[in-house]
Write a structure and sequence with these properties.
Length: 190
């Protein structure tokens, strides 16, 4: 059985889509939800699904092996970032080489990098005047938003869109694709 840990900092709608997708899966299960934010609603979503949770602070994450040990003790095989806003430290990338995936709410390599998350991404897209945006699912390496791209999907930007309207459209795209792309990746099909 492949065992996924989802990392989320906020609301966790993508985490929820992953929980639902893998609920009765024969080969893949979501075994844990980790967060840097004790108030993340994603934690509550996990508890509602009976999924084990772990909250860590910056020091634990960057300067200790607490997180890696916690994951190893539970036999976690892959990490899935779902609205997780901290840079993944080298020690975690070394523990899970090519086994960490992220979703970004724009078409990388545009609109990536430090500070580019959530509404900041949508505001930047809008400001750029681009008439198309989308989502990127990519492997995580030691730079923000630069690992191998597994999948992209696009949607239009309307001239009248607010950042919230764009976020809504992007979320729909994310929920429609992230779970199945993660499934194919974990099973070695991507
Ligand atoms: C998602 O749109 C995800 O792409 C984005 O945060 C949102 C989390 O929503 N991630 C980033 O911006 C990473 N740079 P959710 O908490 O409802 O899943």
């Amino acid at each position: 059985m492949y065992q996924l840990a989802v990392l989320a900092s906020g609301n966790g709608t993508n985490a929820e889509a992953l929980f639902n997708h893998f609920k009765n899966h024969a080969r893949v299960r979501v075994a844990a939800l980790l967060s840097n934010n004790p108030d993340a609603f994603a934690l509550q979503r996990a508890r509602n699904h009976g999924i084990e949770t772990f909250v860590f602070d910056k020091k634990q994450f960057r300067e200790s092996d607490d997180v890696v040990m916690w994951l190893r003790e539970r036999g976690i095989t892959h990490l899935v970032l779902a609205g997780f806003l901290w840079l993944v430290p080298p020690r975690l990338i070394r523990a899970y080489p090519h086994r960490i995936v992220n979703i970004h709410p724009a078409l990388l390599p545009k609109f990536g990098g430090k500070g580019m998350y959530g509404k900041y991404v949508h505001e930047a897209v809008k400001k750029s005047g681009d008439d198309t945006t989308g989502i990127t699912i990519h492997l995580v390496d030691e730079q923000y938003d630069e690992g191998r791209i597994l999948f992209q999907a696009t949607c239009p930007v309307q001239a009248t869109d607010t950042a919230e309207e764009m976020a809504g459209r992007i979320h729909q795209l994310e929920h429609a694709h992230y779970p199945s792309v993660v499934e194919r990746w974990v099973l070695g099909e991507l």
